[in-house]
Amino acid sequence: MADFNGRTILVTGASGGIGAATVRRLTAQGAKVLASGRSVDALEKLEEETGAQPLPFDLTSEDSIRDAVSGLELWGVVNCGGFGGEIATPQDTDIDVFDKVISINARGALLVIKYAVPGMIATGQGGSIVNVSSQASLVALPGHISYGSSKAALDNITRVSALELGKHNIRVNGVNPTVVMTEMSAFYWGRPEIEKPFLEQMPLGRWATEEEIAAPIAFLLSDDASMISGVSLPIDGGYTCR
Q1: Which residue in 45, 100, 114, 151 is the catalytic one?
Q2: Tens of pLDDT along 158-188?
Q3: Does the annotation mark 32 as catalytic?
Q4: 63, 115 in Cβ contact below 8 A?
């Protein structure tokens, strides 16, 4: 596995399943991790387990993000914080929910990049950013007008950030996972009438695990991916190859 010794990496969404799995993997590979998330209790438990330093802030608040992130000497960032929103058609969507999903999944990630990057540039060491997107940005999924739109916006943030930051030797990539059966996703994807037909369309025919998302994130952060920037990597069991 790649060695992150001497490198400080910020992980948002660390109180959730994929975020916590990413923190565990990065700390096991020697990184100093700053862990942000909604649940302070979960962050404190993660600190006891991994040594990751809790850094709670509100992804919907520019002031909160600025105060927490500005001036940090970071080498890497993982934007894993997210909000699922609702399952709704375009004509039935609650626009207030849409606004919240965009605010957290796209706007929040952009603000983290905005305030983290100056410190990354100042170190002169380069660095790596990984944005956790979704297969919902790559293909149309029923009911996912808000979530899919927010993640499509995040994919564009990835590409434009890669274009702008390459001159500073900062790489920016995204991962686009299929469903991991977390608490956030189980309310919808765990329904038998939803789960069975969806998995029948997936070549590998099963849900992803949190660790199967954390591993490619760590790879894209690492020097093993030193010539990879601006990509959106599906981690979806082949679903989007159809």
Answers
A1: 151
A2: 999 999 999 999 999 999 999 998 776 888 8
A3: no
A4: no
Active site residue 188: no
Catalytic residue among 147, 167, 188, 196: 147
Please report whether residue 241 resides in a domain: no
Q: What is the pTM of this model?
A: 0.96
What is the token pair recorded at 105?
Answer: 């999944």
Residues 79 and 113: beta-carbon distance below 8 Å: yes
Query: Residue 196 falls within a domain, yes or no?
Result: yes
With b for 16 or more beta-carbon neighbours within 10 A and e for fewer, the 27-51 pattern comes to bebebbbbbbbbeeebbeebbeebe
For residue 201, give its domain range.
8-232
Q: Measured at the alpha carbon of residue 18, what is the angle toward residues 12 and 19, in degrees to the nearest 5?
A: 25
Q: Does residue 3 lie within any of the structural domains?
A: no
Q: Is residue 194 part of a domain?
A: yes
Task: Tell me the CATH number at 157.
Answer: 3.40.50.720
